[in-house]
Design brief:
The protein has about 550 residues and is mostly helical. The chain folds into 2 domains: about 270 residues, no CATH class; about 250 residues, no CATH class. The chain is about 75% helix and about 0% strand. This is ABC-2 type transport system permease protein.
Length: about 550
């Protein structure tokens, strides 16, 4: 500990300068917070009237309740208590369908936010510059958590306003809906704060946080499917167990979230005082004395650095495919209770409901697979910011050799994870039907040109506009919105057409166009070429 820091901690305390840091972090993160909050709250705001219009009568909701009672559907939505309240409450139906998804997106937002303001800043030496000022040892962590708390309350308030008009509840139900998201945000922000003290870099901290989210989703799904106590092990499950907009509505499960958040914050503050700056509590694994021969190129090194993302993507998409496959197996029973509006959304040119479900799930799998490719490109930008890319570029490699190596790595990651997802979907949904399995696998391959277009666009944005990281997230989020919610929100055709996935023809429920596949592949090649030209022309940028 330096003399200056010792004097600060002895005189002003380890939280000295927290207020100034908080104002700095608000200014620095204002656009990040705006777009995330606007996205989650705005999407909820748009979805509320759509679901209310689709299920205007109790009879329609009762019919739909029968389709949502299977273990597979409950695992992807929430406890059966919500289903039992469909007849009396549109709000119960809305919460049942939306809370898991909006809660998961809220968790992602706060995992990334806390990592960005703590471990990532430490890794890039921003925190070192800040700590050269009269700032206490715990001030940066305190400012990050305070900003997270403020953002969580704002997001919860907006979501409460968005759900205020839902039938079947009152103001307290809407407030509980918002508070459930605030509780999720606080839990994952605090858990990520602990992860930031344990890990040696920002990628590991993010991985720990998203890993906790993945476990939370799996535990909630397993508990909800069978109605067991396992749901109580999940931070997402605690919010679901508040039974919002039902006659059993209760606030006290959220107290578990608050208690866990407080405990995690205490642990994070304890750990930050017992570790060296720039190091994690978990020691980094010792590497080899000499690099393998296969690491003597920029491309090989990139694949080595991103192998963690590749394995994470493989495991995630395999589990996702198997889970969706279980729904395809019961698709015909599911369709019996759908409202006319829902059947119209799922109608794919007269195809069976099983093939319609397969077409939807294949598209969602492709979007998730593309996410891991986008994350690989993001890793390239991070290497550039921290200066490690400069060291590689200084070696005898082509000018576009180092940044350009992230495109094949991203394409490989997205392609592999998409194929694995298709294998899981076929294994879980075909049930020995070789023809259906073949169609699912073929549909998985049909999605690849659209995946490549998205990845190539993200790479071109990285090459030409490296500071505009929001572009890659905007592109991915829009494709997700079009694929999963486009029909529900009745988006205009021109807006749907922006997504490359809109041009694939919904195979196997509908025929696909070979021309569209060739055109999309050509567009991907053009974006890739544009990206390599940009990578060759631009200078490295560190901020």
């Amino acid at each position: 500990m330096t003399t200056a820091v010792a004097e600060i901690e002895d005189g002003l305390g380890t939280l000295a300068g927290t207020g100034k840091l908080l104002r700095f972090q608000v200014r620095r993160s204002r656009m990040y917070l705006f777009w995330w909050i606007a996205g989650i709250a705005g999407f909820t705001w748009m979805t509320v009237p759509v679901l209310a219009d689709q299920y205007t009568t109790a009879e329609e909701r009762v019919g739909f309740a029968g389709t949502m009672s299977s273990p597979a559907m409950l695992s992807m939505s929430g406890p059966i208590e919500y289903v039992n309240a469909y007849a009396d409450s549109v709000g119960a139906l809305f919460t049942h369908r939306m809370l898991l998804w909006t809660g998961a997106m809220t968790a992602v937002m706060f995992v990334l936010l806390v990592t960005r303001l703590t471990r990532a800043d430490e890794e890039t030496s921003r925190s070192e510059v800040i700590r050269s000022l009269p700032i206490g040892r715990r001030a940066d962590l305190a400012a990050a958590l305070l900003l997270s708390t403020i953002a969580a309350v704002v997001l919860g308030g907006l979501l409460a306003l968005a759900s205020m008009g839902l039938e079947g509840g009152d103001g307290s139900s809407a407030l509980l809906f918002g508070a459930a998201h605030t509780a999720i945000a606080l839990v994952f922000a605090s858990l990520t704060a602990v992860a930031a003290q344990l890990s040696e870099n920002g990628s590991a901290a993010t991985g720990y946080g998203l890993g906790a989210l993945g476990v939370s989703v799996l535990l909630a799904g397993a508990g909800n499917a069978e109605g067991t106590w396992v749901t109580w092990l999940s931070p997402l499950g605690w919010s679901q167990l508040a039974y919002i907009f039902t006659s059993e509505q209760r606030w006290w499960p959220l107290l578990i979230s608050i208690a866990v958040a407080i405990l995690a914050v205490w642990l994070a503050f304890t750990l930050v005082a017992h570790r060296d700056f720039g190091q994690g509590m978990v020691a980094a694994r010792r590497g080899r004395a000499e690099a393998k021969a296969g690491l003597k190129s920029a491309g090989a090194l990139t694949f080595r650095l991103t192998r963690g993302l590749i394995w994470t993507g493989v495991v995630t998409t395999l589990l996702l495919g198997v889970a969706y496959g279980s729904v395809i197996g019961g698709a015909e029973d599911f369709a019996d209770g759908l409202s006319e509006a829902q059947q119209e959304i799922l109608d794919r040119g007269g195809a069976t409901i099983q093939l319609s479900f397969a077409a939807t799930f294949v598209s969602i799998n492709a979007i998730v697979a593309a996410l891991f490719g986008v994350l690989v490109i993001g890793r390239g930008r991070k290497e550039e910011i921290v200066g490690r890319g400069e060291l590689i570029a200084a070696a005898p490699v082509a000018r576009s050799g180092w940044p350009g190596s992230y495109l094949p790595a991203a394409l490989f990651t997205a392609t592999l994870t998409n194929i694995v997802a298709g294998l899981g979907l076929a294994a879980g949904g075909a049930s020995g039907d070789g023809e259906l399995a073949g169609k699912i696998l073929a549909a998985t391959l049909v999605q690849l040109p659209a995946v490549w277009v998205l990845i190539a666009f993200v790479f071109a944005a990285f090459a030409w506009l490296p500071r505009a990281g929001w572009l890659r997230w905007l592109a991915w989020t829009w494709t997700l919105l079009v694929v999963y919610f486009g029909a529900l929100l009745d988006l205009p055709e021109w807006a749907m057409a922006i997504s490359p996935f809109d041009h694939l023809g919904n195979y196997p429920a509908e025929d696909f166009s070979w021309a569209a596949l060739f055109v999309l592949t050509g567009v991907a090649v053009l974006f890739a070429a544009l990206g390599y030209i940009g990578a060759k022309r631009r200078d490295l940028q560190f901020s």
